[in-house]
Amino acid sequence: MAIGFTRRTVGAAPLLLARRHDVASPAPLVLWLHGFRAESEVHRPELARVAEAGFLVAAVDAVGHGHRHDPALDAEVARRGALPVMLEQVRVTAWELPAIVDALVADGLADASRVSAVGISMGGYLAYHAVTTTPRIRTVIALLGSPEWPDGDGPARHLDAFRDVALLSITAEHDASVPPDAARRFHAALVAAYPDARAAYHELRGAVHLMSAEHWEQAMAATHAWLGRYGTRTGGVAESPAER
Fold this sequence. Notes:
disordered C terminus
């Protein structure tokens, strides 16, 4: 099936939308969140693959990236370090997501009860944080991100927000940029606190942050399986307790 790509802006946030031409509206929505110093355009193959499954995909250019590239970004990173700059951009972008979802719902394009987020690296940090800023997001796949932030007020401090979210975390075993320990601890704490939580942790054995094509395909296969299981259902709710 043919996939159509369109550009639009909601507030200050540039979006790249992807959808199959024959998919009826409103469709289940996936917010696609890119990595640090990347942009939505680089993920066209992934967006097309998700759209092929019947989703409306909205790839968001984060603050300072893509169509709102900040030429001062490199100097800021050199002066302050990459992590604090990145987390600042994550926090601002996270507060833009509710308006993006609302706009797509108001236009009749997206189903408000079927909203998911997929984030890679910086986008993984953003996907975790989006759970606390955007209650309509009920299905989350966080790849190569961390819920623990150095200032102590990261998503890991808001465990209760994840109780009713279908959360899949995918990490790389040998990731030196974003070590998997934090996501592993978070999932252990989440399941201990809420044994019925719809949460899964998947660590790619032998993988590094800039992973091989083989590891990337494994991550994408897991992402699509999770979206297929939860992203098309109202509120991300499983059909029966046995599926949790």
